[in-house]
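Posting for a labmate who doesn't have an account.
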Amino acid sequence: MSESKSRIDRQLRNETRNLYNRLRSIDNDAEFVQHVTQQLLPQYPVFANERCGTWYVDPAISHQQSVYFKSTDGHNGSWVFSLRRANTHLLMGDSFAESGGCIIVDSTRKGKSMPDSFSRTIPIWCAVWNRAIHRAIVGTGDSGASDSKDDARLAIWDTRVHMPPTVVSDSERTQVDALLDGFADKLAASDIDVSTIAAKLLKPLRPIWITRDHRLVFPPDFSDASFTPVVCLSASLCSAEGNEMGGGSLSGLPFRYVQGAADDQEAWALGLTPQLFWRHRTDLLLLESGRSNSAMSLSSSDACEDAVRRIVATNSSPASLDEYGSGSNSDCFQFIAGTQLAVGNRASGRPPECWTHFDAVINCGAPEFEEHAAGRKRSEKGEKGLADSQYIYLPIPEGKRGQAELSRQIPRALSFVEPLLLKESSCPKRILVHCSQGVDRSVGIALAILTRFFDNNKRLLTLSSAEESNKIAISTVELPFSKEDIQNRLLWIVTSRPRANPSRATLKRVNRFFLDII
């Protein structure tokens, strides 16, 4: 009996992990997202919540920027408001202000109706921003610059935390509420421009939850509401068996439904990305007719895996790494506001277009474009090629293998940019720092540059006359760094480039480089 049960468990586990079942489940959930966003609430821009949410939103309907609300920021007893994930770009964007709200898409497994990012993290985020903005409006009044419009806003400005009562207990909500003023203090004390957002946001933020458990027939109307709706759209159907040991079967579907199928993509996707999935969706999910559901699922499984491997192999060449290269320049790179430094993906460094926007390029380990590689090699041989001040390649591998190399390459990056920023301080050069995606390695190098060469007001640090006469490089001058200084500079990056999401290991390497040399 136990042997039979184990065999059944293994079969269920294999069916759930089956790539075909997962992709069909994602596609099924995406249809629900399409229905809500395009038919019921078409007036609001759609943002995918990294990383899981990007699988469920067709790029044709999603905003070019995503958001990042981390579920662990809302875990019971570990509630935090992360400045790194303040999602300032969402509130600063014209589409949010013009539409008077937005839709955020995410999903979850484990048999829950919504992820913790929806039930806790976003409610905390809304309440903290509401409190910080309330203080900014009151502060305007204290300075004598307020008017009747500000008084009217304050009258409706709700600073309470709103959480789904069927998911979060009153006790937990009360514990969260006690932390909110401290979180608002943290936001107000940061370098984030709360006053500008306060001027754009006319009504307080409030989360609204839509799940597949209660399908909407008529569209909700928030036009006369006293708040700005942040619609949390949970894509997956809640299944009691919707976990890795089971998977709920929906009647009539030619596959085994998996709740939150996109979660933990490294464990099942075989290198497939959301961008590749949507680009090749029809080919991946094409079904043969004339077969029973079970036979169709079995025959489609191997074919789907083969198709995924072919697609991933075809798109693993350097030229195909430019996933966002076909979009506008704003998709590829962003300048750090108030500086001449930009962070971008591989496409942003493509010659000769890159020289239209930049005077120098730092490649942090992305596959080199042929023109750059050839020019660098000619220059190294003493032949005519790229000037040493134009381009540098830092061989930093991706992932854990690149951490030690990142530490070794920081001094090279600092030496490279020093003359570009300081010796021509009257007209500092425009510098691009890029890796493959502009998310981790390039952010670490850019953070090191901002820490070494810019003060807390984003002004370039200059060498004293004594230092200049002795030709002391600024990379050897001891400056008063602190962990808070580095954190603030990271805020500059993530505020300007929302996709930036450096790993904890990368940040530790940068912190160690500066804090250990003092």
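Reply:
Got it, the structure tokens are right above this. The longest strand covers residues 228-234.
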